[in-house]
Amino acid sequence: MKTGNDATTRTEKDSMGEMQVPAHALYGASTQRAVLNFPISTVRYPRRFIKALGQVKLAAAQTNAELGLLDKQIAGAIEQSAQEVIDGKHDSHFVVDTFQTGSGTSTNMNANEVIAHRASQLADGKKIHPNDHVNFGQSSNDVIPTATYVAAASAIKEDLLPALRTLHASLLRKSKEFWGIIKTGRTHLQDATPIRLGQEFLGYAGQIERGITRSGARTSPAKKQTLL
Question: Are residues 204 and 126 in the same domain?
Answer without folding.
Answer: no
